[in-house]
Amino acid sequence: MTWDFLHRWFAPVVIVVMLLLPFGTNSYQQFIINQVIVYVIIAIGLNLLLGYAGQFAFAHAALMGIGAYATAILMFRYNISMWLAIPAGGIAAAAIGSLGALPAMRMKRVYLALMTLAIAELIQWILLHWKEVTYGTDGVKVPNQTFFGLQLANDDHKFYLVLAIMLALYVVARRLVESKFGRALVAIRENEIVAQCNGISIAHTKAAVFAVSAFYAGIGGALFALVLGHIVPEGFGLFQLVVHFSIVVIGGLISMFGSVIGAILLTALPELLRGVRALQELIYGILLMLFIVVMPAGIAGFAKQRGWLPDEILVRGWRRLRARLDGGLDAGRPGPPQ
Question: Pick from 73, 205, 55, 203: which is nearest to 127 by CA?
């Protein structure tokens, strides 16, 4: 009974606490909190692609860079309002991210990972060397904007904007994974042949999840640029990719809760490791290996097993779906010789 009560009131209490956070934090703490919220959005998008759909694509950090640069350039060079620039950053990332669905049609696992990693390196090279547009290593400054009359010149005011967008995107993602589309993603993840035999369009579903995941990365990148105020190409390289994967794997694959938990932990971790900045990538790698071996379901999966977090709807549906898929595979296998 106690756990049911906690589960029912957990989300409303968290939202109220978050709304009151700026009244109890200093500017630096608020800056870190804003970054956490941005990484929640990015992690949700990657979880849709990696966790739910099982597509090992490594271009997420570069797509975040596309969203950040598209938004920053529109606001800095063309003086376009952030209300148009932020969605434009997401759309630009989704358009380019959809190209990642093309190799996904023919490649799987390590080959898809290598192909998307090559695409990410190409995007990184363009951001660095196309100086007429991206300003190269000088980066792009993001001008201050207004949010319902508030000047977004400090982190307290930016907080409410990124929080509102994160909550909206979180709700959309939950609706997606609880829908027929979410079940199609998990079916493709488990077995593409059986999924296709059940009437699921592999090509269309993969194209859709690549686009949605890239859109989330683009919006996250746009807000990342807004929070930082100045972006450079080096901010969207390999280390950024390692952070994204660490958030999803440590927080928990196939879990919206996991995206939130991983973003909180992995965004705060660099602050604890500021004294050993040169070893941060090594520490992230070790943590990834430990969680893959010891806690493959991540922190969210472990918490669900203990009853500390409620099961997500798709998890229960996924278990039933997997049983049907396994049954379909068994039915399709030839029986023993008579």
Answer: 73
| CATH code for position 54 | 1.10.3470
Per residue in 278-310, is it b (16+ CB within 10 Å) or e — as a string? Answer: eebeeebeebeeebeeeeebbbbbbbbeeeebb
The helix or strand, by DSSP H or E, that contains position 284, with its residue range, turns out to be: helix 280-294
Number of domains in the chain: 1
Structure tokens at 335: 């029986």
Instruction: Give the pLDDT of residue 327.
Output: 59
Structural contact between residues 34 and 165, judged by C-beta atoms closer than 8 angstroms: no
| Share of the chain residues as helix, strand and coil, in percent rounded to the nearest 5 | 80, 0, 20
Specify whether the CB–CB gap between 44 and 170 falls below 8 A: yes
Residue 280 structure tokens: 């941060």
* Range of the structural domain that residue 300 is part of: 31-271+280-330
For residue 21, count other CB atoms closer than 10 A to its CB.
Answer: 14
Q: Facing residues of 147 across strands?
A: 150
Do the domain assignments include residue 152? yes
pLDDT, tens digit (0-9, with 9 covering 90-100), for 130-180: 999 999 999 999 988 777 666 777 888 889 899 999 999 999 999 999 899
The residues that bridge with 230 in the sheet, in sequence order, are 141
Q: Is residue 13 part of a domain?
A: no
Q: What is the mean pLDDT of the chain?
A: 84
DSSP 79: -
Residue 222 domain-assigned (yes or no): yes
φ and ψ at residue 204, rounded to 5 degrees: -65, -40
Asked if the structure places residue 85 within a domain, the reply is yes
d(CA 45, CA 97): 12
pTM given for the model: 0.86
Question: Each residue of 270-315: pLDDT tens digit?
Answer: 777 776 666 777 887 788 888 888 888 899 988 888 877 777 755 4
